[in-house]
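Final report, closing paragraph on structural work. Over the funding period we assembled a curated collection of sequence-structure pairs, and we close with a single example.
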Amino acid sequence: MQKRENLFLKATFILIISGFLTKILGFVIRIIYTRIIGEVGVALYSIATPTYSLLLTISSLAIPTAISKLIAENSATHKRSLNILTSSAAIILTINFLLIIIMLISSKFIANNLLQEPRSFYILIAMALTLPFVSISSVFKGYFYGKQNMIPHATSNVIEQIIRLLIIYFVLPKLMQVSVLTAVVGLVLLTILSEISSIIVFLFFLPKKINLKKEDLKPNFTTTKSILDISLPTVSSRIIGNIGYFFEPIILTNLLLFSGYSNNYILTEYGAYNAYAIALLTMPNFFISAISMSILPEISKYYYQHKLAMVKKRIKQALIFAFIIGIFFSFLIFTFRDTLLFTLYHTTKGSNYIKYLAPIFVLFYLEGVLISSLQALNKAKITMRISLIGVFLKLLILAIFSLLHIGLYSLLISEIINIIYVVFANFYYLKKTLAKEKG
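Its predicted structure, as stored:
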C-alpha cells in the first residue's frame, strides 16, 4: 500500500514540476508573441480560439482518457497496451482527416457570417492543419498516464515548449514584417513543429524489446469498442463545453453589434478578456491538471478492485490540494493583478475583469478534480448532463445581458454563473455516488 501511495505522490509531483516548467515557458512564449503581434494580432487569435478548442476536443475524442483508464484498470501487458495505442491512433487519424475536410469547406462561412471577421478564415484553416499532430501526441500521453509513468509526458512538454519558444522568437518577427495576419497564421502553424518534437520524445520512451507480430499492431475491433465505450460519454461533456465556447464570441459579437458597440471595441475587449484576464486566472491550471491526470488512473484502479476506502481517500486528498491552491492563487492574482498583467503582457487591460472573476475562480480550480473523479467512477454521463445544462445557462445569460448595454460584463456574469452551477452540481453527484457505493 505504501508503494502505491508513493507512486501516486511521485506521479503527481512529476506532473506538477513539469507543469510548472511548462507554464513558465508558456508565459515567456505568451509574453513574446503578444508583444510581437500586438493587440490586433491577439484579438484575431482570441476570436478564433473557441473554434480551435472545439476542434481539438472533437479531434482527440477523449481517447487519451480512455487509453489511460483501460491500461490502468487491466494492468495491460506491453502487447495489449500497444494494441490499445494503435487502435486509438486509427480512430483519431480518421476523425482528424474528416475534420480537416469539414473545415476546408466551412471556414469561410464561419469567419464571414458567424465570427464577423473575414481575416479569421486563414487562421481557422491553419488551426485545422495542426489537429492530427496534436491528437497523436495526446494518444501517447494517454498511454503513459495509464502506465503511471509521467516522465515521458514531463520531458515531451518541456522540450516541446523550448522548441516552440525558439521558433517564435526567431521566426515570428520575420512573419510580422509581412503582416499581422501572416504572423498569427504562422503562430498557429508553428504548433506542428513543436508537436512533432513531442511525438519523437514519446517514441523514444516506448518499450523496445517486445516480440510483436503484425496482428498485434492492427486495430482490434474489441479494443476499439472498449475505447469508444469510455471515450464517447467522456468527450460528450467536453464537446458540449466547447460548443458553448464556440458560440460565445458569435453570440457576443452579433448581439453587441446589434446593441451599438463597434467591431473594434468587441475585438479589443474580447481579446483583453481571453488573452489577458482568463489567461492569468488559469495560470494555476498546471497544478490542477497534474492532480486530475494523476487521480484518474489511480481512482479507476481502486474502483475496479472495489477498494472504496482508497477511492474516497484519493478524492479527498485531491480536492483539498486543489482548494488550497485555488485560494492561494486567487488571492495572489486578485491582489497583484495590475502588476502581473503589466509584467507579463506589458498592459493592464483585463484588470477590471480579474477583479470580479478571481474570487469565483477558487471554485473553478475544483472543477477538473471533480470531473476526473466522476469519470473514473464511470459517471461520465452525469458530467455530460451537467455540462449541457451549464452551457445552456451560460449562453442564455450571455444573450440576455448582451442586450443590456453592459459590454463584456455580460460575458463575465455568464461565466460566474456557469462556474458556480457546474462545480456545485458535480460535487453533489460525486457525493451522491460515493454514498451509494457505501450502501
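The chain has one domain: 2-208+217-438. Residues 2-208+217-438 form one domain. We thank the funder for supporting this effort.
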